[in-house]
Automatic annotation (TrEMBL):
InterPro entries linked: ClpP/crotonase-like_dom_sf, Tail-specific_protease
Source organism: Persicitalea jodogahamensis
Gene Ontology molecular function, alphabetical: endopeptidase activity; serine-type peptidase activity
Entry superkingdom: Bacteria
Record's signal peptide: 1-25
The keyword Cell division appears for this protein: no
Domain named Tail specific protease: residues: 255-447
Keywords: Signal
Protein name in the entry: Tail specific protease domain-containing protein
GO biological process per UniProt: proteolysis; signal transduction
Length: 494
């Protein structure tokens, strides 16, 4: 949904999930080695992972695991084994758990498909061509890659790479897959120097000529692609600083607060106080300017520190709240949880704030009637509030939206976020390395339950759902989500 805000760092980060030539040349795995890897993974999931049986039954997981083991051939390449084991991870439908390639399997010389692709009405278009060959213009309809239809590839990769997508919420899987398409394609099919694409040619005015053509497109490194992106599409590049506040429009009494992440600032902020300070500065300015409309832009915000989402909510919610009602861990997850940061205080803090539940066998956080956060007294915002959201909005960002929906504040515009309304499996994570394939699996250790009224549907649906149009792709500098919010504000003030 964010056509005008191409985050170069996010692009680099997401495409790095692909496997390189080095990974493709890894030794073939024997049946015994693959069985060892599956057994090792199963042991860790059974002992640590809190989500087994939540979105899918444990019996279904066990049947899938046993079928996978029984169907193993004498040997497989690393990439083919990756394809076999991915469904076992993805069957949990947990956006915080993911399967990754071996460490250092990519480097700065790894080439990828040099297209940024977006979907409109079931058709797929080149939003940005970042290759040296500019003959495939912006707005070109892509029909297939290496003979496989785009719709098939989109669904295939969305099913097998679920990072940032909980439950059966479609937007998280489908949107993130297009954002990360070059990397995910390479991870699944292998890195290639060039790819055969079939497309419908458009003229200089982005009008389809109706001619279906084929050509080989050379793959490129992320560095080279980003250079062409900045050079060829300068009106579409807007790198926004976290917690930046800007005036919405000269004709509207309102502002936009960009919240790109809830993670703490990396430089000079060991106690995570910079986020708190900058947030206070932003809301103080909002108060001084007397903005009657505030848009909080959470598009592409993948989460971060829980305390920072609570800090933002304290300026928005009228009633005291706790971000989470409670959290639970499996007994086997306690040791990896308390030893994760090698802080000698962590075990003490854990046992002071958690207790063992003899009924369930789980370790459960101590609950209190006292809420963790109170509404900000000085700079609290009670005017017209809007949230801009897309499928890449996840984790701590969803905590903000869940509480806003729970207390009945704000208007949600865009797409459903990728995370679930009730909570998630997160807090702390352990990354394990499978002994033979060296695949890495990120395992969440805790179940976190939002302190909200329960609901059957995990999906947070927008009040005003938006879909990209073809003209949004081909118009330089257009941010169709923000344009819609401006119209909404103007109409509401009439």
């Amino acid at each position: 949904m964010r056509n005008t805000r191409v985050n170069l760092f996010l692009l680099l980060l997401l495409v790095s999930a692909a496997c390189s030539r080095k990974a493709q040349q890894a030794p073939t795995l024997t049946r015994q080695e693959m069985r060892q890897d599956i057994a090792f993974l199963n042991k860790k999931l059974s002992s640590w992972y809190p989500g087994l049986g939540y979105y899918n039954s444990e019996a279904a997981y066990e049947n899938l695991r046993d079928s996978l083991v029984a169907g193993l051939p004498d040997s497989l390449t690393n990439r083919d084994f990756f394809r076999r084991i991915a469904p076992l991870i993805n069957s949990q439908k947990d956006g915080h758990m993911n399967l990754g390639q071996p460490k250092r399997s990519t480097d700065k010389n790894t080439p990828y498909l040099p297209f940024v692709i977006r979907e409109v009405g079931g058709k797929y278009y080149v939003a940005y061509n970042t290759s040296a060959d500019s003959t495939i213009r912006r707005g070109t309809e892509l029909l297939s890659i290496e003979g496989e239809p785009m719709a098939y590839l989109h669904e295939l990769l969305a099913d097998n790479f679920r990072a940032g997508a909980d439950a059966d919420i479609p937007t998280g899987r489908m949107f993130r897959t297009l954002v990360a398409f070059p990397g995910r394609y390479a991870a699944w099919f292998g890195v290639k120097d060039s790819l055969l694409v079939s497309y419908v040619r458009v003229d200089t005015a982005a009008v389809s000529t109706g001619d279906t053509l084929q050509k080989y497109v050379h793959s490129q490194t992320s560095k080279v692609s980003n250079q062409y992106l900045k050079k060829r599409y300068p009106k579409d590049i807007r790198i926004t600083k976290n917690l930046a506040l800007s005036k919405l429009d000269s004709t509207i009494n309102g502002a936009v607060l960009d919240v790109t992440t809830f993670s703490k600032f990396k430089k000079g902020d060991p106690l995570n106080l910079k986020f708190k300070r900058k947030l206070r500065q932003a809301f103080r300015k909002i108060k001084e300017k007397n903005y009657q409309n505030l848009v909080i832009d959470l598009r592409g915000n993948g989460g971060g520190a829980i305390v920072n989402s609570g800090r933002l909510l304290s300026y928005l919610l009228p009633e005291p709240f706790s971000v989470f009602r409670e959290s639970t861990l499996k007994p086997g997850a306690v040791f990896p949880y308390v030893t994760m940061d090698l802080n000698p205080i962590s075990p003490v803090a854990f046992f002071l704030t958690h207790h063992h539940d003899r009924t369930t066998g789980l370790w459960r956080s101590n609950t209190s009637r006292k809420k963790d956060f109170k509404p900000a007294r000085k700079y609290g915002y009670r005017e017209n509030l809007y949230f801009l959201v897309n499928g890449a909005t996840f984790s701590a960002s969803v905590s903000v939206l869940a509480h806003a929906r729970n207390q009945g504040i704000g208007t949600l515009v865009g797409e459903s976020p990728g995370g679930a309304y009730w909570g998630d499996f997160a807090a702390r994570f352990r990354v394990i390395k499978l002994p033979n394939s060296k695949f890495r699996v990120r395992i969440p250790l805790k179940t976190l339950y939002h302190d909200i009224k329960p609901a059957d549907d995990p999906e947070i649906k927008p009040d005003y759902p938006l879909s990209r149009r073809y003209e949004d792709i081909v118009t330089p500098g257009r941010d169709f989500g923000m344009e819609f919010v401006k119209v909404l504000i103007r109409d509401s003030s009439k």
